């Protein structure tokens, strides 16, 4: 990431008062732009795949005056009707268009920034804990980092009233469907990189890391001076009782290191470096999962061979190794749909692709009525047909009930039913969340 770091924090002049030849403001130089999300694409199993991404969404939804605008905003986000997003201190912006118009609406979500004194308190605390810096560099935001911010009197995640939507559309809703769509897609950016949140709050990644390095350097010098001034004689150190062992490490979060790039150029005969890297990363990922649940309850049952093949193929969907996995499983034709299901809901999603069972009659009746009342994906009132745990709505939409009690949306594509989104708690929401074809 290229940044032109500027440490002048003076407030910029309004655009209409700046000199014609004035360069970009400090905030403009910190801005980052992200390409638009393609239609129908989802990052994560729900709107956000991380707890901090979900906290962002909750902050926006708590202030919403009309749930229908949120629902329409979700559809716009999934349909790819949000253009490239620009994030800068105090705001995110994008052009958001309605399905039937060419010119997008200029849409902004303003975010409260942290004051200089708040940044000083926060960065002093973060610099004192190497684990916080390592987590951020690993694109993770652990709960204790946010607790550290709270202890310093700094609210890192946006709270009630910190998000202020603006749009040039005629709607008076707060937020309108365009601002809601922008906010939902911003959660996907936060999932990938928590530095995006810190940029919204006022500081860019390069600027933050430079500041943290300076603070760490000062701490190291101060610690060295203290050690020199007050050392411990060797005989006292040896005579002291042994220190207690540290507590076992807590659950590890974040993705394991991708090893395939490190193995490139070191291939051995008969060894696929890409496949070996994926297997190693997958083993590390599963080991982290075991560490996270150790001592908190029984371990989950082992996956079957088909689910293992799907999980591994999902890590390298367009590689030769994925093709070999499909051939070895004997279900090469089914693998692309199963990988899509895994991306949305993991092993439970893969199970729903094949599972056929009879739910209780009361559930069938309630689900059929709810789907009829939902009005269909395109606003019409289509026929709803039920067979076992599957409800077909119209010609091209389907909702399936999973063994885990959740509802999974499917859409017909080339004569096959394809997973079309993450599961929901009820059938109507799963149907309404289907991206437009």
In terms of topology, how is this protein built?
Blueprint: H1 26-30, E1 32-34, H2 51-62, H3 67-78, E2 85-88, E3 91-96, E4 105-111, H4 116-127, H5 130-137, H6 143-151, E5 163-167, H7 177-192, H8 195-200, H9 205-229, H10 234-239, H11 260-263, H12 273-293, H13 305-315, H14 320-329, H15 335-354, H16 361-374, E6 384-387, E7 390-393, E8 397-401, E9 407-413, E10 416-419, H17 427-432
Antiparallel strand pairs: 1-2, 2-3, 3-4, 4-5, 6-7, 7-8, 8-9, 9-10
Helix pairs in contact: 2-7, 3-7, 4-9, 13-14, 13-15
Q: How is this structure best described in words?
A:
This protein has 437 residues and is of the alpha+beta class. The chain contains 17 helices and 10 strands. The strands form 2 sheets. A 5-stranded antiparallel sheet has the order 1-2-3-4-5. The longest helix is centred in the middle third of the chain and has 25 residues. The protein is globular and about 75 Å long.
